[in-house]
């Protein structure tokens, strides 16, 4: 899942690479702090309707702009590939999750499992233009020397190379059977490094980034910092400082919390007052039908999850405090996003995750602590996706529409809510424009590259109300054989049962953002139009539907 923050430190003269008619006039260019959250649902932040305490992130929304129609992908790695490349994941190298490619996808261009040679990383172009570049946290874009962050433009980094932290958020050394992860710092393998007793992933990644930023001198070149939190990705865990902060706050259950969040979203102006709760995910049991013991366990799962979100926000606050203390905050452009929707793992979808912890202690008292293998489940994920349907791994709105906030210099907004559509592909072109850097034409470093398909929304941040995208554009998503396509307010979905019908379904997002009413039979001509739109998207973006069995990482 992704959150993004931009930050501009002391001012720096713009050093444009443009020539001729494209030459930019010298101006100040910002430092950039980009914060991405992992598996944080649309409605899990205070600024987006949640009761969870997230004052640092909320403050960015209050001083900047928050988007209500920002699209990522349905899983972590494809989103990150699109973020750094500015193009579709099927072109950039993550057309499938690494290790889960179908036989017909294996070895095909766009399905390498890492940012391929046809892309140029946003970080690399910023580095080329004089930015100092730093990264800490989850990478998920390659594990070899050729694919680690240094090869993609980062000067300093400490990364968790894979998706989830197999050793849990409390350790990096993979001491438990089946729990070994892969970690690197500046090219050195740190997989077996020792950690202090109070180690927790998000705390450590924030510490590392603050250390890297602290090494800079005030008059150094501008920086691009990428802070990629790991928690609350499974296993859902929280440090002792946060694990009991929300004790007894969720005893009313996920159905009540879902409605309460939706009501708050309406008050905030995030959704129309006419929007309803929508349909229940097929894997969710109504709260009232759970036994007292099941309710007790479910409430505890959400308490831990809320503690993890609260901890992430505290770490955002620590980074922002460092910028203030070093005189850089006022010149820092900040963006925040989640990498996909809430993680509603359940049953057969979660068996591979449970196997990672063969000796997991999931006793009630240990839930969310070191050694537990916990996921908070589809009921809470549905509450975290309000008012949308489903969650991570699905092309529904709940799986791909995520929170996105921008604040700082160049953002001429104070608490603005913007309903215009944006996608994660638009981020790289935007940051390059803000930094005064041109994307290379046709080739880079002696190799052929693909053009970016995202569009810059820098003018929108500066106050322009002009839409970046129009109603004729086609937006598509595909992963694990699941498909979605949007054009204007219309959206077509092809999902496997029980989440879909194994046939194309049709929804009018303008009147039904929760994708509740399938209009495929009532609107056959529109459905045919949307299927053609899907085929156009798939052809242009090298989509190969896996012919292997449906598997999940």
- Please give the order of strands in the largest beta sheet: 8-7-6-5-9-3-10-11-4-12
Sheet with the most strands, sense and barrel status: 10 strands, mixed
Cα distance spanning the termini: 14 Å
Average per-residue pLDDT, rounded, comes to 90
- Number of individual domains: 1
Based on Cα principal axes, name the global outline: globular
Radius of gyration: 22 Å
Describe the protein's architecture and organization:
With 553 residues, the chain is α/β, with parallel strands linked by helices. It has a single domain (12-466), classed as 3-Layer(aba) Sandwich (Alkaline Phosphatase, subunit A), CATH 3.40.720.10. Helix content is 25%, strand content 16%. The protein contains 13 helices and 18 strands. It has helices at residues 55-63, 76-85, 89-92, 122-128, 201-214, 254-268, 292-325, 351-355, 377-384, 397-400, 427-435, 458-461, 524-540; strands at 12-13, 28-29, 31-37, 65-71, 132-138, 156-160, 183-185, 188-189, 223-228, 332-338, 401-407, 416-423, 443-444, 447-448, 474-479, 482-487, 490-494, 504-508. It has a 10-stranded mixed beta sheet, sandwiched between helices. It has a 4-stranded antiparallel beta sheet with strand order 15-16-17-18, with helices on one face. α5 packs parallel to α7 (292-325) and α6 (254-268) packs parallel to α9. It is globular and about 60 Å long. The two termini are 14 Å apart. The relative contact order is 0.19. The model is unreliable at 1-27 and 174-178 (pLDDT under 50).
Nutshell version of this structure?
The chain is α/β, with parallel strands linked by helices and 553 residues long. The chain has 13 helices and 18 strands.
């Amino acid at each position: 899942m992704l959150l993004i923050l931009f930050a501009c430190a002391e001012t720096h003269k713009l050093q444009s690479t443009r020539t001729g008619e494209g030459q930019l006039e010298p101006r100040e260019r910002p430092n950039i702090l980009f914060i991405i959250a992992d598996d944080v649902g649309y409605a899990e932040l205070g600024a987006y309707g949640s009761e969870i305490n997230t004052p640092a992130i909320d403050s960015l929304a209050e001083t900047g702009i928050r988007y209500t129609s920002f699209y990522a992908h349905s899983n972590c790695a494809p989103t990150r590939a699109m973020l750094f490349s500015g193009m579709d994941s099927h072109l950039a190298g993550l057309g499938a999750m690494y290790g889960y490619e179908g036989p017909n996808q294996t070895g095909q261009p766009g399905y390498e499992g890492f940012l391929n040679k046809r892309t140029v990383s946003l970080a690399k172009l910023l580095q080329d233009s004089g930015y100092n570049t730093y990264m800490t946290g989850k990478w998920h874009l390659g594990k070899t020397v050729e694919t680690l962050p240094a090869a993609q433009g980062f000067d300093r980094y400490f990364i968790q190379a894979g998706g989830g932290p197999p050793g849990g958020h409390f350790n990096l050394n993979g001491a438990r059977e089946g729990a070994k992860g892969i970690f690197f710092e500046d090219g050195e393998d740190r997989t077996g490094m020792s950690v202090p007793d109070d180690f927790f992933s998000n705390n450590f990644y924030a510490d590392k980034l603050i250390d890297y930023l602290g090494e800079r001198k005030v008059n150094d070149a501008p920086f691009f910092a990428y802070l990629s939190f790991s928690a609350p990705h499974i296993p859902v865990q929280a440090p002792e400082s946060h694990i009991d902060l929300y004790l007894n706050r969720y005893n009313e259950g996920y159905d009540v919390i879902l409605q309460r969040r939706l009501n708050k979203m309406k008050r905030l102006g995030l959704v129309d007052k006419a929007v309803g709760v929508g349909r229940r995910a097929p894997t969710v049991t109504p709260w009232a039908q759970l036994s007292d013991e099941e309710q007790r366990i479910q409430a505890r799962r959400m308490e831990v999850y809320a503690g993890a979100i609260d901890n992430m926000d505290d770490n955002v606050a620590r980074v922002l405090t460092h910028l203030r203390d070093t005189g850089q905050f006022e010149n820092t452009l900040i963006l925040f996003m989640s990498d996909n929707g809430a993680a509603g793992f359940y049953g057969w979808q979660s068996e591979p995750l449970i196997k990672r912890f063969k000796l997991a202690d999931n006793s009630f008292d240990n839930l969310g602590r070191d050694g537990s293998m916990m996921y908070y489940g589809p009921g809470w994920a549905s509450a975290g996706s309000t008012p949308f349907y489903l969650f991570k791994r699905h092309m529904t709105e709940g799986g791909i529409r995520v929170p996105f906030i921008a604040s700082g210099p160049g953002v001429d907004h104070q608490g603005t809510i913007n309903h215009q559509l944006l996608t994660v592909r638009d981020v790289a072109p935007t940051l390059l424009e803000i930094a005064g850097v041109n994307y290379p034409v046709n080739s880079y470093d002696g190799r052929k590259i693909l053009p970016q398909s995202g569009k810059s929304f820098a003018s929108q941040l500066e106050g322009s109300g002009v839409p970046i995208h129009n109603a004729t554009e086609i937006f598509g998503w595909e992963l694990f054989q699941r498909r979605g396509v949007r054009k204007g307010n219309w959206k077509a979905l092809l999902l496997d049962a029980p989440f879909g019908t194994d046939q194309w379904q049709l929804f009018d997002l303008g009147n039904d953002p929760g994708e509740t009413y399938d209009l495929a039979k009532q609107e056959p001509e529109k459905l045919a139009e949307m299927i053609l739109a899907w085929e156009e998207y798939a052809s242009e973006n090298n989509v190969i539907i896996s012919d292997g069995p449906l598997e999940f990482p």
